[in-house]
């Protein structure tokens, strides 16, 4: 691997560290996809009956093409459903993609669908305990879709939280196939995020009723497209672009617009162009190397993106034979400036970010500072350096590309590296008596980066809410919410905790959260040590904490410690918890094998942990 001469020294060092650490497994992975690749379409090696089954339902024109084998056949793997606002626009994408494939001299087929659940609907409900596991189900479903071996490339229709990471993992299991990811875009802006957050807090305090809360939520989530705050779904889109799997500037174009449709057709055309039928063969397994993942982590830090990606990027990299460590994220954060303020790290939404210069400006600034590998491979046919362009429709309505914004359109939302919102990305790894954890400080006031307070112990977010409503939490404290990890109950997001903790913090109390559960990109102003590993269900030290123990969460020093006598701490036995009520109902009984086999949070919380890439 050759590091560009202009790259920041820390970026270069971490990239080389990942490459060295991953050398053997990456080599084995590349050898396997090399063996799977073939200049001749795999379907032509199938028996006649096999082939006939594959094109039996096609139209006459497509049948002729598939029988002759003279053109590429494109797999469409879709996460379409009309319950998720972000995925509803995908209903008509296959029609556009098939037409584009035919125009390019090939064919396209919907190879399979993958599940797509909405964390916004399951938030705080039992279904959320299936959310993280759905990522690995999606990876498995992707493998099933592609297992027919009748395809020369694939396009992936997915946008939300676990869906994109699952699709990437599945795509990498067929790493010899080129892959292009096609977004659907964000919904248009609704009520300001600050207004929505205010009403949520008023509801938590009992000052407005449920009708008022539902009204503001409906005005926020009001149409088709991705929710406009910068949570995991929109962090996914940033990652797919900065890692080269989207076309430049395509991530945040709103649905059902002429530009969106043109980009969808162009993405299908690029997928056709990078198969073995052309001169630009670009398999995803080769493309997503250590440079691509380092670029992704830099983008995550520069935008204050979702903490879920400290899990997802690790799992995605493992599928490509690469080993990422949380320390890589933290070391890169130290040299990556925070360049955006998008809710919950600010008041703007992703449409405002896009209008202010968006991904083109962000990538231009990061490349200029030597913080991205500009020579990383992309599906666009050019290196990442070309992603400073933006798409537009010319006078004839044709898709064209032009230089993106050289200056930010709004310094309250998007800034250059010479004037960042803060000098570091705000992601830290904590180590200490309680194990290992992640904290995102980009939305946390500097005076709250260190919290020392007695522990209050809870084994569910409902228990903390009950204590809050009873007035039992009017004090300084650190909430230890445990038995929320992947082996315990699937590692749900714990957003029911945020309103009461935020209220108590606003009342002047020193509060923080320590948990082996998740919070994601929607976490905000309360200091939160999340993804604690080893988790309580494995007997991790978080299960040894007792009510009243003095805990110090220090995001400056990167420590998470219990301030009691070391001998007493060593002598303690971890508590246990009967979790059976979370293992049945809402389909949870079907996931017992997942809970039994899932790996640790810092290994990606994946059922594929330990499985060779």
TrEMBL record:
It is an enzyme of class 4 (lyase). [4Fe-4S] cluster binds at residues 160, 227. Residues 413-605 form the Dihydroxy-acid/6-phosphogluconate dehydratase C-terminal domain. Residues 73-385 form the Dihydroxy-acid/6-phosphogluconate dehydratase N-terminal domain. One of its GO terms (biological process) is D-gluconate metabolic process. Belongs to the IlvD/Edd family. This is Phosphogluconate dehydratase. It comes from Beijerinckia indica subsp. indica (strain ATCC 9039 / DSM 1715 / NCIMB 8712). The gene is edd.
């Amino acid at each position: 691997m050759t590091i560009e001469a202009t790259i920041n020294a820390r970026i270069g060092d971490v990239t080389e560290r990942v490459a060295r650490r991953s050398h053997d497994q990456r080599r084995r992975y590349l050898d396997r996809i090399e063996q799977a690749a073939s200049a001749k379409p795999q379907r032509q090696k199938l028996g006649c009956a096999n082939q006939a089954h594959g094109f039996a339902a096609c139209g006459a024109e497509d049948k002729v093409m598939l029988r002759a084998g003279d053109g590429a056949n494109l797999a469409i793997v879709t996460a379409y459903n009309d319950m998720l606002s972000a995925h509803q626009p995908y209903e008509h994408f296959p029609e556009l993609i098939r037409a584009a494939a035919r125009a390019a001299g090939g064919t396209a087929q919907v190879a399979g669908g993958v599940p797509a659940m909405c964390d916004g609907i399951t938030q705080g409900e039992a279904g959320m305990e299936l959310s993280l596991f759905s990522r690995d189900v999606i990876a498995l479903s992707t493998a099933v879709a592609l297992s027919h071996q009748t395809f020369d490339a694939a396009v992936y229709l997915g946008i939300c939280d676990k869906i994109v990471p699952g699709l990437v993992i599945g795509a990498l299991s067929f790493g010899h196939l080129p892959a292009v990811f096609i977004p659907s875009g964000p919904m248009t802006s609704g009520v300001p995020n600050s207004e929505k957050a205010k009403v949520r807090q008023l509801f938590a305090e009992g000052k407005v009723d449920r009708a008022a809360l539902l009204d503001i939520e409906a005005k926020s989530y009001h149409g088709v497209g991705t929710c406009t705050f910068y949570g995991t779904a929109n962090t996914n889109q940033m990652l797919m672009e900065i890692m080269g799997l989207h076309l430049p500037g395509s991530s945040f174009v709103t649905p059902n617009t002429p530009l969106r449709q043109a980009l969808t057709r162009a993405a299908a055309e690029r997928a056709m162009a990078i198969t073995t039928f052309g001169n630009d063969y670009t398999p995803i397994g080769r493309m997503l190397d250590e440079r691509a993942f380092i670029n992704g982590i830099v983008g995550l830090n520069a935008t204050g993106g979702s903490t879920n990606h400290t899990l997802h990027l690790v799992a995605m990299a493992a599928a490509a034979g690469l080993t990422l460590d949380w320390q890589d994220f933290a070391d890169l954060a130290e040299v990556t400036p925070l360049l955006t303020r998008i809710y919950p790290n600010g008041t703007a939404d992703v449409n405002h970010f896009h209008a202010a210069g968006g991904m083109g400006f962000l990538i231009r600034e990061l490349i200029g500072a030597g913080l991205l590998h500009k020579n990383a491979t992309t599906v666009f046919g050019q290196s990442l350096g070309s992603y400073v362009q933006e798409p537009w429709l010319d006078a004839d309505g044709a898709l064209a590309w032009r230089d993106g914004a050289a200056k930010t359109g709004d310094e309250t939302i998007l800034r250059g590296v010479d004037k960042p919102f803060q000098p570091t990305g705000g992601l830290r790894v904590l180590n200490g008596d309680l194990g290992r954890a992640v904290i995102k400080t980009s939305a946390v006031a500097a005076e709250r980066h260190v919290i020392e307070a007695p522990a209050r112990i809870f084994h569910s977010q409902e228990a903390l809410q009950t204590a809050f409503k009873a007035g039992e939490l009017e004090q300084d404290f650190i909430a230890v919410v445990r038995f929320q990890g992947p082996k315990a109950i699937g590692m749900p997001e714990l957003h029911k905790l945020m309103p009461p903790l935020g209220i108590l913090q606003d009342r002047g109390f020193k509060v923080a959260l320590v948990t082996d559960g998740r919070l994601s990109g929607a976490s905000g102003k309360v200091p939160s040590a999340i993804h604690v590993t080893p988790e309580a269900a494995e007997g991790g030290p978080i299960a040894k904490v007792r009510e009243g123990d003095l805990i110090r969460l220090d995001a400056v020093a990167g420590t998470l410690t219990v301030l009691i006598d070391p001998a007493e701490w060593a002598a303690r036995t971890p508590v246990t918890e009967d979790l059976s009520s979370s293992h049945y109902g809402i389909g949870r009984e079907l996931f017992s094998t997942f809970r039994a086999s899932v790996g640790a949070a810092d290994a990606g919380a994946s059922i594929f942990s330990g499985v060779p890439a």
